[in-house]
Amino acid sequence: MTGSPPPQLTPIAYDTFVADVQAIAAALGKDGWLPDFIVGIGRGGLVPGAYLSHRTGIPMLSVDYSSRVAGFADDLLVKLAGMSAGGTRILFVDDINDSGSTMADLRGSILDHGAKAANQRFAVLINNRRSRATVEYWSREIDRAVDKDWFVFPWESMAADAALIDEALSVPERLA
């Protein structure tokens, strides 16, 4: 994206974030598929996961997967896969399903370790309809072919704009 203008940083208001969590909780209630555990995907899914856990009363676990530190989450993913294989329903939560890399990699890893596909689902606040991964629950949907904004969630608002822009530019296919 050299020579391109920097991405548009679009803050998400706290009230909008809370409404998104409420929408996911409502979708879970309407669907009738209730997880035994919510798993917040670190780092972007930790805050939404905690809010959803408090809203629903479903206990929360976390997995630091999106940091991509080699081997860091492996043992936990094996444990989660074993729980799923044994009948435990798990809802993974993240902030956005953008390119789909995190969701697809995480889902694949869990399944590779023996998880039952029927016992795992994914929820996000914002879903890119062009993502390579599917999620079962979301509050809002975007089309990355049209919407190039870089969404800044309330917990990210502490970062400097330059850091947010660097993060956005680190995965140019999201914004190209």
Q: Summary?
A:
With 176 residues, the chain is an alpha/beta fold. It contains five helices and seven strands. The strands form two sheets. A five-stranded parallel beta sheet has the order 3-2-4-5-6, with helices on both faces.
How would you describe this structure to a colleague?
The chain is of the alpha/beta class and 176 residues long. It is 35% helix and 22% strand. The chain has a single domain (9-174), classed as 3-Layer(aba) Sandwich (Rossmann fold), CATH 3.40.50. It is built from 5 helices and 7 strands, in the order E-H-E-H-E-H-E-H-E-E-E-H. Strands 3-2-4-5-6 form a 5-stranded parallel sheet, sandwiched between helices. The protein has a two-stranded parallel ribbon with strand order 1-7. Helix 4 (101-112) links the parallel strand 4 (90-97) and strand 5 (120-128).
Q: What fraction strand? A: 15-25%
Give me the CATH fold name.
Rossmann fold
Low-pLDDT parts are: none
**Continuous helix count:** 5
Structural class: alpha/beta
Instruction: State the helicity in percent bands.
Output: 25-40%
Order of helices and strands: EHEHEHEHEEEH
Strand order of the largest sheet: 3-2-4-5-6
Globally, the shape reads: globular
* Measured distance between first and last alpha carbons: 7 Å
CATH architectural designation: 3-Layer(aba) Sandwich
Rounded Rg: 16 Å
Number of strands: 7
Mean pLDDT across every amino acid position? 92
**How many discrete structural domains?**
1
